[in-house]
Amino acid sequence: MAHTKISIRNMNFFYGQKQVIHALSMDVYEHQILALLGPANSGITTLLRGMNRLCDLIVEARLEGEILLDGQDIFHPEVGVTQLRRRVAMVFDIPTPLPLTVFDNVAYGLKLQGGKSKAEIQETVERAIRMAALWDDVKDRLDESALSLSGGQQQRLCIARALALDPEVILLDRPCASLDPISTAKIEESLHTLKESYTVVIAPHSVQQAARVSDRVAFILMGELIEIAPNKEIFANPQDQRTSDYITGRFG
Amino acid sequence: MSPHVRRQERLAKGVIWMAAVSVMATLVFIILYILSRGLPVISWSFLTEIPRSMGRLGGISSTIVGSLAVTVVAIVIAVPFGIGTAIYLAEYTRESFITKIIRFSAESLAGIPSIVFGLFGFIFFVIFLNLGWSILSGGLTLAFMILPTVIRTSEEAIRGVPYILREVSYSLGANKWQTVSRVVLPSAMRGIVNGVLLSIGRCVAETAAVMLTAGSTLRMPDSLFAPARTMAVHFYILAREGISLENAYGTAALLILVIFAINVGANILLDRFMTKGR
Amino acid sequence: MKKTLAEVVTEKTFLVLALSAISALVLITVFIFVQGGPFITTQGLGGFVFGMSWAPSQGEYGIFPMIVGTVCVALGAALIGVPIGICCSIFLAEFAPPLLKNIFRPAIQLLAGIPSVVYGFWGLLFVVPFIRHYLGGPGLSILAGSIILAIMILPTVVSISEVSLIALPRTYKEGALALGLTHWQTIYSVLLPAAKSGIVAAIVLGIGRAIGETMAVIMVLGNSVALPESILDPVRTLTTNIGIEMGYAAGEHREALFATGIILFLIIMTINALAQYITRRR
Known about the structure:
The complex is a heterotrimer.
Chain A: E1 4-15, E2 18-29, E3 33-37, H1 44-51, E4 61-69, E5 72-73, H2 81-87, E6 88-91, H3 102-113, H4 118-131, H5 135-138, H6 151-163, E7 169-173, H7 181-197, E8 199-203, H8 207-213, E9 216-221, E10 224-230, H9 231-236, H10 241-247
Helix pairs in contact in A: 3-4, 3-6, 4-6, 6-7
Chain B: H1 3-38, H2 44-48, E1 51-52, E2 57-58, H3 61-92, H4 97-111, H5 114-128, H6 135-159, H7 163-171, H8 176-205, H9 208-211, H10 231-240, H11 245-274
Helix pairs in contact in B: 1-11, 3-6, 3-8, 3-10, 4-6, 5-6, 6-8, 7-8, 8-11, 10-11
Chain C: H1 5-43, H2 45-50, E1 54-55, E2 60-61, H3 64-95, H4 98-113, H5 116-134, H6 142-166, H7 170-178, H8 183-194, H9 196-212, H10 215-218, H11 238-245, H12 251-281
Antiparallel strand pairs in C: 1-2
Helix pairs in contact in C: 1-12, 3-6, 3-9, 4-6, 5-6, 6-9, 7-8, 9-12, 11-12
């Protein structure tokens, strides 16, 4: 049995009066890729943003229940929110390079932490870019604007930027939604190497992607967890009719 | 389409084009009118010599320094306050009673006539704070005047920064101030600088407010507490008192060139340099 | 979420900076009123506002002719400038090809940047002789002031109306065109009414600018303190009254000028509040 990295206990989430997540409980295992599968507006993005407390930024939002990281409640007052966000990194659904150079994008999180020498930063940045399979593309362009990269390169830059934090968990919210098939393949490839060192939670943009990349799949509908099971089981033998309908393309 | 409708359509279109063309023509006419008479007056000595016999002879060097000095004072004071206000309104607070009052104040300030700023600057800085007619009084008065411009343009620029960039910054472990200072402000810099340039233009062009607060001496100012005459005030006095039409044209041409440089030249430069790194 | 001390300190710092606008407005109001208010109370508001004679050397301070002058010049500027300004905003929003738009819009901005004294100077050398020659009278007149101010309020009128026209949903225009209306009929019967509040705000703010302008009109209005009988007569406005006499006024005279400033301030604040009310109501 794998170690449980993140444990979500009875999570409810509200935007104002509207409830978008209903009594959701599930575990995320270490060094695995968990795919959160479901149609649009199922609360998957909200769930991801709960896991690194980005939802704190929304004033009308309210979260009930517990999210445990290595057994500790991430909403406990002793947990520093910036510390948490470094441990649980996030990649967004559209490429979001900051208006800085390629190098400074990846170094952004490191420089915020402070206390790192120039050489250390340089080394970490290079390692992160290599892990995101971007080094050959950008090694001569580190001082150029990140906005001059292609969409696929920008998204891999965003992954590198997250990796540079040396996180424990990486959240990916439809990371390939706006990318071409070749860039998508490159990112999916790097995911397989990433899970050696990290725990990955991904919201795939298609059933096929979930099938290709994940170890386990959670099917979520209208903010409810319908079922969660290892990849092979859920695609071969879904327990719930709705899961079966969704993965065979009846809706969604 | 009936002939009547077609005629109406053509007439309306004609009137609108005519309005636009005539406005454009008026602008070009005014600028050419001043430049054609003023440019020949501008020479090296015109720019570098101190005015003599009330401005009839000599150049306008001390008034260039005067304009520069009051503008610098105004910008140095107004820009931090203005950008700070914009950051507060856009990043640190939700719409509330206090933001409503701040906005109302800024919009009201923007509408106050410059001569009223002049009256205020005179009674507050010159008399009450006992700064006398000086560069400091003039600059501070101008700072009050341009404050709303800096606030409005900066706030618009800050609000124009996509929300996702803030989320990215937070997700990388930044706190609010780090996010604002390292991501939001650099992204909004183009718009903010534009607002500052606009304000510089207003300072250089302003006459009424500085005339009542900075004085009108033609001596070269030697400190912030010294009185000074700005180019705009100098031009006004030359023209109104009929001292020297020639030098008036020269000063006006220089003013227009400066404004033109700020409006057009700076924009081109901004496009070239500020789009780097993004 | 608990905030760290540093976060609280930065937030409070920005709050303090943000109070600058409020403090500025309060300071201005207080100092103008303290300086000019006592004069109005001793003189009597009615006698000051409706007094017909302004002769500081004889202690007579009536600003009614100046109020009339201000209103005449501002209305004249609106009559000339508003239709042209709205036409220009329609031109920008609906008719201008992209290239012209990219020239015309900065040109309007440039118009706003030119020092007001330059407009006054140009008016004095060009508009005033023109009126004197073709229409008679001294040339220095309400008409001359109105023409100069009409040009000066264009940027305000054009930019605010254009913004409110552009902000309309595209469906308005598409719907109207789909009903078989021509382009102009669409503009006239759908777009302009829909953008009405923005355009009205633009007009109000334009009039506010015209009332507040000093240096441009000081050179072309003739500045005589008398009730005008025609648009070719010279007048003095509230702003020019201050601009002309502030340089040498002292004692009671100076207080009277501050009192003039109070009246001007009140008129402008009313107009601003009106414009803000119109824009907010949407």
